[in-house]
From TrEMBL:
Superkingdom assignment: Eukaryota
MF terms in GO: magnesium ion binding; NAD binding; oxidoreductase activity, acting on the CH-OH group of donors, NAD or NADP as acceptor
SUPFAM superfamilies on file: Isocitrate/Isopropylmalate dehydrogenase-like
Keywords: Tricarboxylic acid cycle
Coiled coil: none
Gene3D superfamilies: Isopropylmalate Dehydrogenase
Entry annotated with the keyword Transmembrane helix: no
Domain (Isopropylmalate dehydrogenase-like): residue spans on this chain: 2-249
Family recorded in the similarity comment: Belongs to the isocitrate and isopropylmalate dehydrogenases family.
Alphabetical GO biological process terms: isocitrate metabolic process; tricarboxylic acid cycle
Protein name in UniProt: Isocitrate dehydrogenase [NAD] subunit beta mitochondrial
């Protein structure tokens, strides 16, 4: 259903921000990478049929138009975010036409951005490198299926599905959501889900509409709560509920707001000018 909505709204670029959380230590720390995938084509085109009983054909659609615009999106994103390197992830060694078109298009687009480094990596090696040396990655761009797998893998490096935000972009619309899109249906009504991913997605939304100060305050509050380690949901090793974590973030926001008000220096009023007495003639 979501894939169908993305096609209707032409939300062609899915962006997942993977960053290490302050104070929450994993095997790999200080990670900061962006995973960009084309999300209208590839294996998720949903074109499959049973040609004869017991034989199913699934079509993988790749067009130069969509390969080109996702490549340009990735390089434009790198420039706006002041990032240095774009890595195209593919399987062109086996799927020489489909992924070959994607890789060739990325290579051609990279020539338009001489100040951004470009390299490519086969998806198999990419997965291995992510779990062994993820710090090497900056901006990654890839077709649909690979991106779906890689963003889930990368989320696991920094704490799981509950802490990674995402955005789907079109030319006119943007959809802000948890990065891995896990429904976590078993948590429904139990007050145990980690709201960090959707809260961080809210920060991305605020920045998208140029409310940068509001976004900074909210993100700072979220990261402060996690860094303190006192109020964490079960997926981060704590025992707090969704409500308790959210209340802690709100309390931190109020604390910062009060502190900001206290640090404002009041400017004393200048004394009113006294009227000059009239001289007796």
């Amino acid at each position: 259903r979501l894939g169908q909505d993305c096609r209707i709204l032409d939300l062609y670029a899915n962006v997942v921000n993977v960053r290490s959380l302050p104070g929450f230590h994993t095997r790999h720390n200080n990670l900061d990478m962006v995973i960009i995938r084309e999300q209208l084509e590839g294996e998720y085109s949903c074109l499959e049929h049973e040609s004869v009983p017991g034989v199913v054909e699934c079509l993988k659609i790749m067009t130069r138009r969509n390969c080109e615009r996702i490549a340009k999106f990735a390089f434009d994103f790198a420039v706006r975010s002041r990032r240095k390197t774009v890595t195209a992830v593919h399987k062109a060694n086996i799927m020489k036409l489909g992924d070959g078109l994607f890789l060739e298009t990325c290579q051609n687009v990279s020539k338009l951005y001489p100040h951004v480094n470009f390299n490519s990596m086969i998806i198999d090696n990419c997965c291995m490198q992510l779990v062994s040396n993820p710090q090497q990655f900056d901006v990654m761009v890839m077709p649909n299926l690979y991106g779906n797998i890689v963003d889930n893998l990368a989320a696991g490096l920094v704490g799981g599905a509950g802490v990674v935000p995402g955005v789907s972009y079109g030319h006119e619309l943007a959809l802000f959501e948890p990065g891995t899109r896990h429904s976590y249906a078993v948590a429904s009504g139990r007050d145990i889900a980690n709201p960090t991913a959707i809260l961080l997605a809210s920060c991305l939304l605020l920045r998208h509409i140029n409310l940068n100060e509001h976004a900074d305050r909210l993100e700072s509050a979220i990261r402060s709560v996690i860094e303190s380690g006192r109020v964490l949901t079960a997926d981060l090793g704590g025992r707090s509920t969704t409500s308790q974590f959210t209340d802690a973030v709100l309390s931190q926001l109020h604390f910062v707001a009060r502190s900001t008000r206290r640090t404002i220096v009041s400017i004393p009023r200048l004394p009113r000018k006294q009227p000059i007495p009239k001289q007796d003639s």
